[in-house]
Amino acid sequence: MIRAWLSTGGRSGVVLGIAAIEMALAWLLGLAATAALTRTLAHSPVGYQALHLAGGRWLGDLLALHAHAWEPTAALLGVALVAWAAAWLLLGGMLPVLGATAGVRLHRAAAESLRRAPTLLGLAAIAGLGFALAAFAGYAATGWGERAAALRLDVRAITLLGWVAWPVAGALAWLIGVWHDLARAHAMARGKTALQASGAAAFQMVRNPVATMATAAGFGLVAWAYVGAAAALSGLLEARTSVAAVVTLAVVQHLVVLGRVHARMKWFAWLGGRIAAAKTE
Amino acid sequence: MSSKRMVLPRAAGVALLLLPLGASAQPAPRVADYTLTATLDPVRHTVRADGTIHWTNPSTVAVRDLWLHQYLNGFAGPRTYFMRTRSGDAWPAHPPHWGGLALETLRADDGTDLLPTATNDPAVPDDTSQLHVLLPRAVAPGDSITLAVRFTATLPEVVARTGYDGTFHLVAQWFPKVAVLEADGTWAHFPFHANSEFYADFGRYDVRIRYPRGYEIGATGPRVEGPAVVDGLLEERHVLEGIHDFAFTAWNHFRHADRTINRVEVHVLHAPGDERGAARTLDVMAGALPAFERRFGEYPYPVLTVVLPPPGAEATAGMEYPTLITIGAQWWTPRRVRDVEYVTLHEFGHQYFYGMLASNEHRYPMLDEGFCEYATARVMEDLFGRGGPVLDLPMLGPRFDTWAWEALGSAAIAHPLPLTLGADEYPSWDRYGEHVYSRTAIVLRTVERRVGTRLFTEILREYVDRSRFRHPTPEAFYAVVRERLGVPWEAFVRTAFETPWRYNLSVSEAVSARDPDGHWRGRALIDRDGPFDLPVNVVFTDVRGRRTVVRIANDRPLTVVPYDGPAALRSVAVDPEDTLPLEQRRIDNARLADGLAAPTLPLVARVAYWVALALGSVGP
Ligand SMILES: [Zn+2]
Known about the structure:
heterodimer; A: mainly alpha; 3 domains; 10 helices; B: alpha+beta; Immunoglobulin-like; 12 helices; about 25% helix; about 30% strand; globular; binds zinc ion
């Protein structure tokens, strides 16, 4: 059972490779964001634990001390985010290529992803528009909820109705995410253009809604379950400063990223299989 | 008319009830008594009222004039002194609906109409928040005059601590109020400034409030009559002595929760759906009342009303009036986010530092806001444990303490000013706040840390006891400090209060090297930046974990402390006990010996994880 779940059809190497790329980027961003802080903390006898001690006084001191470094740090983060967006596009093309065919080497997938960059950009633009619309719908629904609730003057109902809008917008965003995965899979596996792939993805969602959505939801839930477990663990360990606690947390957190990439790989492999099966029908 | 109840038989009992409980020790003077009948029109947002002001000259000289404050006129238009002195986004630039106080009758007890000769302060153009009234006769020290008044207060849409939002009304600054005549015969009158709160004399307030059926009200003082139907309106009467202001609230959707705590009737008025906020408020009051009474003396009033304004009326939240306070709360915040508790404690603390003491909030805002802020943090710690955590959510990062909040607020001051400036002397609301609230509180906290909580509580208690109903100035506090702690401590407090300062201690160097005799010798440099000569401990820790404590006088800008030990120096800390929380920074008070570095990789790993998660969740 576990063995079946872990199996990615011969893609373990590339899963590790993609997770490593993601973590490397995250470490770069982490280093950029904390470089100034760590220089100060390294002088402190308690090191990074100072952040958790003295009721927030040392953390506040640290932030005040580096307030002037805020702008360069923000600029650095801006650059890093652009780099991340580029990597996102690259990895976003590689996953469907790797999912469509087992045994593709990582650099071949990267080359293919780069070659199809215009198509990937087109799909990302359409998805981005969809996400923006979902956010606006959520915002608009919040206002509607508040107006409706205001008539009853119950502050609890006002807040709750406002909140209901966000899961709805979240569900919409999730649907767009699934569509985006499908469209990329169609574009990369069958060489379709952005518009053709968009249509094919929508068609597959309409034709096979249950299987597609259920599978997407399943893999999505698994990925978020890892995150949830890690969050619970960090709740327990966040304030602990022993070496064992720190190492445990770091290992678990890296495993979560790996687990997430693994679940995504399995999902794209499933999509690749479906598309291949549809082609041979 | 017919349903008006007879009150006379109850009057005697009522009179006993109305006296402040602490009155036996030191009764509140009766300088300004107000007897008013006020009718709220919640559709026009007006209060029409008439009655009398009975004023007794508390000074040592006879006076022929009188100053009245009509602060609702601060919201009479865009050019008032209040609106002109407003800074940043402290208050809205423009309430959608202006307000004002229209005085229609002002007549002396001999029948003289005082309005024709009354003038606004010519020193403050375009502002009607003060009225200078010439009296028909001189009022000798101890003598009284009764003024008959009739007026209409028009409330602004919620702005600074007052106003209406829909059918919710918070009615404050709604009547003409006599300024304080100081003992030397000078009037402490001032225009309504946007940084400033209030100053008034004690007296007996006897107010009948009439309001439409369907509304519920909360008001200063205990309700001694009603509600009963009078002329088709509901009427209730509130009477209390030993107070210096009167406010009330009315809404047709109020729910209420009540509890008697330490013989005090606590009423919480809240919006439907905010039952949880009300319960939290009562819970914190159940701890706060005994804690405040233990530290700062008896709460002398029989009642406390806490108002949780509905959404939309947040501008009225977080304010104190005698026995009536407003707080802000979200019903859904977790209990470990102690915003409700913090604000409730602060506004309740004002029943001492404002209510009972009644220092001049315009001239010495630090005496109410700063001392109250200290008291808030002190009781936060009493109720919620070390540091008084205001944010205690381990899942989401470090704990955040009230004391750390005050210390950081004081440390954030970029351009120090004295703490004893008047409210109008601080150039902006932000600079007013960082000095008057945080820095004052942290100076008091520093004395507490130095002399011990127990002794410092006794000192504050003595200051409160002596100043009850006495309008104290900082001198009253200095006197107690001098008597209990001596002249050097008085000098410290005076310097900390009256001069601008910045203060910091840091370890700028920590080194050791092995000598031929096998000993490790070296030194620590303790840099001091700022004015205070207060001895502190310097603690050396060697690589084997052995600690050596050295007491230094800390009376110069640089102290060199030699190290001599059997092992290499690992770290040096100055004042690790945090006896000087007024320091600019605490993180530079400890330092590893040169050449050593503490691990910081776990921090980068933690940040990297959150970055990976955040980017991954929207990732490829
Ligand atoms: Zn206050």
